[in-house]
Amino acid sequence: MKSTKPYWSTLFIPTLLLAFLSSCSKTSNELDNGKARLEHEIRGQVKFLEEPESLSSLTDKMEAYHIPALSLAVINQGKIAWTETYQNENFKQQIKLDSTSIFQAASLSKPVTFLAALRMHTAEKIDLDKNIQDYLKEFVLPIGKQTPANPVTFRNIFSHTSGISPGGYQGYGRDVEMPTDLDVLKGSAGVNTSPIEVITAPNEILAYSGGAYTLAELALQDIFNDDFSTILKEWILEPAGMENTEFTQPLPESETHRVAKGYTQSGELIEGGWRNHPEQAAAGLWSNSSDLAKFLIEIYNAYQGNSSIFSTSAIKTILSHERDGHVYGFIVNRSENDISLTHYGGNAGYRTGMTISLTSGNGLVYLINSDNGGALGNELLLSASKVYDWRHFKQTEVQRKPIEPGVIKELEGKYRWNEQVDLSISFDESKNQISLFFPNGDEYELVPIVGEELGFIHGNTGIQVSFARDGDKPSFMLYGQTALKIINP
């Protein structure tokens, strides 16, 4: 039988197919190339103008920072582009990790908790603006700066404006009986944190409070009459497809083989491998980069109107509550018609971070099982921004400035910063360079830069120090606070 198919279809369809396959191949090749570049183009916070940039490999950085393992996920246009678990071969006692291994997510627990509560609010199971005391069965929030007209609520707890005493949690050894939420809130015997108090009027100031999140944790358990891990599994972990994530504290013995154990700054294993956190909402999440990438993608999809979990109006409403560059614990970055959300975390032995652009759907998640992980985390964000052409996480560009050795040497000495902390400046004559030393022994080599007369910068972190003279007494500014030189009598 003679074909009735138009003659051009035999040419046109294959042409479309080839174009499609070519497009897919190009996208795949671009992503593979991006992975290779990120693995070999790790850069620091500071770029010195008119000088070649020093780049490092991810492997070399992990070795330099004494980092045992890294779980990394890159998000491209609202989809997971790639994930990888890297391990440092120098840590022989470390178990072999894979895509199902879990790290402590630390304070990344907070946004996961908040977004679960946002779903509950949308479903009218809770009211974010209701007095939190109305939901508590046993615990009575001590009388403080709250009032019936201006109470502590889920909303100001999650936005860190509840007025509850600030601070985080250090966790408990695995050989210690873990206190209950009620014990933590009351500061009972055996608890390593103070009881919570409402020390400032709610909604007045932005102040990070882990204790406030534990209060919300208790309230949710009282509302649903269930344990926190089960509640969060139903309201956020399962809906977001986070298969290797849980809030269970302590982990059941059957799950402990999956843990990427935490390490100290000196490269020593945390006693017991990790610390338990009864304060699950604030610090108790176990997860990996792939699952947290899925969580971020749901927020992006909702902003774009494509999520089955969050409503677009709910996500856009919370973005309207920005305060001092933060929204419900996220750091908000708005630049070049782009809006992104970023959150960091740190438990003993772990450093974590995640970011997502709500405009492009590009982002990254890292979980590192070392107290040294913060520096590498920042460098990953900067490097990914360069490799994938993000609109946020840009380097600080400065120009080196020559200064006479005699001028630099005069800055050497002991300083008292903010009238509280003793710092010191040392001078290395062979390098004609000064270094800032913190009380814990951390050293920051400072480079003189063009700008202020005696301005310096730390090449890795971008921390800037500006020296001045008040008569014969030198001083410097650090983080907006003054450090005065201590003159011996």
Features:
Lipocalin; 19 strands; about 500 residues; Beta-lactamase; alpha+beta; eight-stranded antiparallel beta barrel
What does this protein look like?
This protein has 489 residues and is of the alpha+beta class. The protein contains twelve helices and 19 strands. The protein has helices at residues 9-40, 58-64, 109-122, 154-158, 181-186, 210-224, 228-237, 280-283, 289-303, 312-319, 373-388, 405-409; strands at residues 46-48, 69-76, 79-87, 103-106, 285-287, 326-327, 330-335, 338-347, 350-357, 363-368, 396-398, 413-417, 421-428, 433-437, 443-448, 455-458, 464-470, 473-478, 481-485. An eight-stranded antiparallel barrel has the order 12-13-14-15-16-17-18-19. The longest helix is centred in the N-terminal third of the chain and has 32 residues, at 9-40. The N and C termini lie far apart (109 Å).
